[in-house]
Design goal:
The longest helix is centred in the N-terminal third of the chain and has 28 residues. The strands form seven sheets. Strands 18, 20, 21, 22, 27, 29, 30, 31 and 32 form a nine-stranded parallel sheet that branches. Strands 10, 11, 12, 13, 14, 15, 16 and 17 form an eight-stranded parallel sheet that branches. It is built from 31 helices and 32 strands. This is Polysaccharide deacetylase. InterPro entries: Glyco_hydro/deAcase_b/a-brl (IPR011330), NODB_dom (IPR002509), Polysacc_deacetylase_ArnD (IPR050248).
Length: 874
């Protein structure tokens, strides 16, 4: 009996302790991230003055040094995999997908500068479950040569930025191409790093060119190695010589844009392919990947990121269990937005719209001179914008806010949730700001923006619960490294680079007015971006200009966010609701049944060739006898005086909008064969093409031709295996379906079963894959205009006319013109405009007058390219 009482008392005591821990756990557990999420000025997250001062003081008072982590063989087949620096978000996501596919852990050493400029990429890494550590501020090499103060400043700034973004400070530091001297280790320790990391083996991407090479690489690995992949090359440290000032960079001849883009794409592609080969080889060799911190000499590093008192203890687990049980017992079920699919709660960075409009947004009211300058510029340009204002700014600068409202601009609310803030607290702060706006300024808004820092799920939930919209940005004009820039040209070169020729429909551009040293710089950027990245989208010629022709509707406008969001006729859901996609599209045209017995017969019906594609050139796997049965003309069989305008690849709004305007102006249809690799960066443009009544066909995802001429052997060879090619085709088609799968033209789907092979090259394997994937027609064409090589408009017009007319001046019936929608095809729109204008002026009886047809009206069920009589009956 006494034992039972003792047990009962003990259970009661433990229960009380657990309840205490449950309610007072914050007393025992120190949250990571400290007060860093309370930072309201991104500039402070770069300078980190307090942290720098504290670190320098530690160096004076202590000789403690960080330890060095190197590979360590613990008797198991393990390696630690690291990725050093950051590359573009798409490439990082592909790496994350590969790590998930092969079930490998990794440690990402991220530099502070890139983290601040693209925090979402770092958030994605964290969400994927990988470790995030410090790669210094900009990943420079030879850091041992720098002064102590410079090193401390570099480490501290990077550390603070990563804490802001991830709410957790890294414990490890990595400096490639740097010697870890005692001085450097002392600086690292003072800046909060327990250890620095030294790589054993770097992956040579170019040498990892096959699975055999990957196997060889892994065979030479020692268990316990630290294997690193450089995603960003180390920069040389900048040092100023005494008595000299920094010089302006020399203007040098640069390679063309095409070469630069190809080089960048190739580098990223090589890296991703090398990583996959490495992971395959590691899996085959039964290696597992662990975090770098697992190779530490002791467990202090791991413990430093956790609680010192209750880490992994029975009490914490019991408290967690008690919390779950008590919550389920005493809390009524509540459906917050987070309980719905995550993609229903998202930050809007691109408004899903086909309206030719771009929103400008602004934040930061502290500098009245800049605000007044911006308002004046917007007024002169006739622009209305959206200004996001924090509650503290409403109270501190009411007159400034009233001026903004009086100028006709839209107002949204800027919020910055504090560290550890709950759903209800964030919700109340939004409600409080909305109340002030309504009562004191007569403004109601449902637009919310978190100006910087990673947007948490709680923030999304709170915003959604109030039926508000969380607004982000596609282009963040102000970046920390630009603070002291003096001209718009300097900023433009780094924000847009050489590949972003224009902005796109619905892409949100954000300006911060309280940052630059030069008070006129934001105003200059407002004007310059409009001039170079918005106005250049319009079709402007000496004979047709939006300024003088009211029917020229090719110009994009700049509008407030809310105004664009409220235009329901232009807004669409992306990805489209699969329930609204016709069954034929969802099933990817799988009504077509082709096997080895009828393959050649069906191919001859469905292949519209090109006279330059022959047995010797870009055609593989077919016998000479087979090829005799395939079309070489590239013409649609018809008695109509009709031609077909087709456009390949992909481009920016600056190129494609001009083509769309010309087609709209002359009321003619086109077929756009879409290269989908980058199409999801601008889905609005693809949606616009379809909604304006044009056919959409496929042109692959990565533009890999089915067959190439091997320069070494001089023989034709395939670029991909059938499985790989089929996957590419499916990926490409799915991207198109997600954007335009629900669009119909006169009752027919805009997304067709048409495919144009890259470089017009075909192989038997590729054609089989096309049919198996669900494509119905392979369309090359009768005239390759080579418009991307054209030197001027007259030259291109002559080329097109050669494709349209016979020597006698009559229409080549059924001619298919192969053109391009890329930014390199600079004269295509103007040449077509002149040609179509001249054609319209001709009498209907003129034998040279043509009409422009829609391919989907001619390539109907039963059409046969090999049997002209059957085709012409259709």
């Amino acid at each position: 009996m006494k034992n039972k009482k003792m047990i009962l008392v003990l259970v009661l005591f433990i229960s009380i302790c657990l309840i205490g821990i449950f309610f007072f756990k914050n007393i025992f557990i120190k949250p990571t991230g400290g007060d860093y999420r309370n930072i309201r000025d991104l500039d402070s997250s770069y300078h980190a003055e307090a942290e720098i001062e504290e670190a320098l003081a530690k160096i004076k008072n202590s000789q403690e040094k960080a330890t060095v982590i190197m590979g360590r063989n613990n008797g198991q087949r393990q390696i630690a995999l690291t990725f050093d620096g950051l590359t573009d978000r798409t490439s990082v996501q592909q790496i994350l997908d590969l790590l998930k596919k092969y079930n490998m852990k990794a440690t990402f050493f991220v530099d502070g500068m890139q983290t601040a400029e693209d925090p979402q990429t770092v958030v994605n890494i964290k969400k994927a479950g990988h470790k995030i550590e410090n790669y210094s501020f900009s990943g420079i090499n030879k850091m041992e040569t720098l002064p102590m103060e410079r090193v401390v400043k570099d480490f501290s700034r990077a550390q603070k930025i990563i804490k802001v973004i991830t709410d957790q400070g890294p414990n490890l530091l990595k400096c490639n191409d740097t010697k870890y001297t005692d001085q450097l280790l002392q600086a690292a320790k003072a800046c909060g790093f327990n250890s620095v990391v030294k790589t054993d083996v770097f992956l040579n991407v170019k040498q990892m060119n096959s699975l055999v090479a990957a196997d060889t690489f892994v065979d030479k690995l020692k268990p316990g190695s630290i294997v690193s992949v450089k995603l960003k090359s180390n920069a040389e440290p900048i040092t100023n010589e005494p008595g000299k000032t920094d010089l302006q960079p020399a203007i040098d001849k640069q390679p063309g844009l095409k070469e630069l883009l190809q080089e960048a794409d190739l580098r990223e592609k090589e890296t991703i392919e090398a990583v996959e080969k490495l992971l395959i080889a590691l899996s085959k060799a039964n290696y597992t990947a662990v975090y770098v911190e697992d190779f530490a000499a002791d467990d202090r590093i791991q413990k430093s990121a956790k609680t010192a008192l209750l880490d992994s203890s029975f009490l914490v687990k019991a408290a967690s269990y008690l919390q779950e049980q008590s919550t389920s017992l005493f809390t009524l079920p509540t459906a917050f937005a987070a309980d719905i699919a995550d993609n229903h709660i998202k930050e809007i960075k691109i408004i899903s719209t086909i309206e030719p409009a771009i929103p400008y947004t602004f934040g930061g009211l502290t500098n009245e001179i800049v605000v007044n300058d911006v308002l004046g510029r917007l007024h002169d340009l006739g622009i209305k914008a959206t200004f996001f204002v924090a509650e503290v700014e409403m109270k501190k600068y009411p007159e400034t806010l009233r001026r903004i409202i009086e100028n006709g601009h839209e107002i949204g609310i800027a919020i910055r949730p504090k560290d550890g803030e709950t759903f209800e607290e964030t919700r109340k702060s939004i409600m409080s700001a909305r109340k002030i706006l309504h009562e004191q300024f007569g403004v109601d808004t449902n637009l919310i923006k978190q100006p910087w820092g990673a947007v948490s799920d709680l923030t999304k939930e709170a915003t959604s619960s109030l039926e508000c919209k969380l607004i982000g940005q596609s282009v963040n004009v102000v970046q920390s490294k630009h603070k002291d820039y003096t001209s718009a040209d300097q900023v433009m070169a780094e924000i847009f680079g050489k590949s972003m020729f224009s902005l796109g429909r619905g892409q949100i551009v954000h300006f911060r007015m309280d940052y630059y040293t030069n008070d006129r710089l934001i105003g200059d950027l407002v004007e310059t971006i409009k001039q170079r990245k918005v106005d250049n989208i319009a079709y402007v010629t000496s004979y047709d200009n939006p300024a003088s022709n009211p029917d020229n509707n090719s110009q994009y406008t700049i509008k407030p966010v809310g105004e664009i969001l409220n235009h329901d006729n232009f807004i669409y859901q992306y990805p489209v609701d699969s329930g609204n996609v016709p069954t034929r599209i969802r099933n990817h045209w799988h009504g077509l049944k082709i096997d080895q017995h009828n393959f050649l017969v069906e191919t001859s019906k469905r292949y519209i060739g090109n006279r330059t594609v022959t047995y010797e050139d870009r055609m593989l796997g077919f016998s000479k006898m087979d090829i005799r049965r395939l079309d070489k003309s590239g013409f649609i069989h018809t008695k109509d005086k009709v031609i077909f305008l087709t456009f390949d690849d992909w481009g920016t709004d600056a190129a494609i909008n001009k083509i769309l305007y010309v087609l709209r102006k002359h009321n003619v249809p086109g077929t756009f064969f879409i290269l989908t690799n980058n199409v999801l960066n601008n889905p609005n443009l693809l949606r616009t093409i379809a909604m304006q009544g044009h056919d959409i066909g496929g042109h692959s995802d990565k533009h890999k031709p089915m067959v190439i001429n091997d320069p070494k052997t001089g023989k034709l060879t395939q670029t991909q295996g059938k499985e790989e090619y089929t996957k590419e085709l499916s990926t490409s088609y799915q991207k198109l379906q997600d954007v335009i799968g629900d669009v119909t033209i006169n009752g027919k789907p805009a997304l067709t079963g048409f495919f144009r092979p890259p470089q017009l090259a075909i192989s038997k394997m590729g054609v089989e894959a096309l049919f198996e994937t669900g494509y119905e027609y392979i369309i090359n064409g009768s005239c390759s205009t080579n418009d991307y090589k054209a030197e001027n408009v007259p030259q291109l017009i002559r080329t097109i006319e050669d494709g349209v007319y016979t020597k006698e001046g009559e229409v080549k019936k059924g001619a298919i013109l192969v053109m391009h929608m890329s930014d390199t095809a600079a004269y295509t729109a103007a040449a077509l405009d002149i040609l179509l204008t001249a054609n319209e002026a001709k009498a209907d009886s003129d034998p040279s007058k043509f009409k422009v047809g829609r391919l989907s009206d001619y390539l109907v069920d039963g059409y046969s390219q090999i049997n002209r009589k059957i085709a012409e009956l259709k």
